[in-house]
Specification:
By secondary structure, this protein is of the alpha+beta class. The chain has 2 helices and 4 strands; from the N terminus they run E-E-E-H-E-H. The chain has one domain: Alpha-Beta Plaits, CATH 3.30.70. The strands form 2 sheets. Strands 1-4 form a two-stranded antiparallel ribbon. A two-stranded antiparallel ribbon has the order 2-3.
Length: 83
């Protein structure tokens, strides 16, 4: 599954530079995660880096975009050009 940022986001700017897939960008009011680019850091790290640095724990699994670990890995391969 991709991740999503809830409205508890305080726009602290720490998550965006941590994303290896450039899936996080400033939205109209809070940061947003592009589900087409989010791999939960599969292929890059053992844990999602944005969740690790978020001071308010507002980055959660997005139930609207279910994906298996294998699907996340395949997305990583496509995004990085290793497919």
């Amino acid at each position: 599954m991709s991740l999503l940022i809830t409205d508890e986001c305080i726009n602290c700017d720490v998550c965006e530079p941590e994303c290896p897939n450039n899936a996080i960008a400033q939205g109209e009011e809070i940061y947003e995660i592009d589900p087409n680019l989010c791999t939960q850091c599969v292929g890059h790290y053992d844990e999602p880096q944005c969740q690790q640095v978020c001071p308010v724990d507002c980055i959660l699994i997005d139930p609207a975009h279910p994906e298996t670990q294998e699907e996340l890995h395949q997305k990583y391969l496509v995004i990085t050009g290793k497919a």
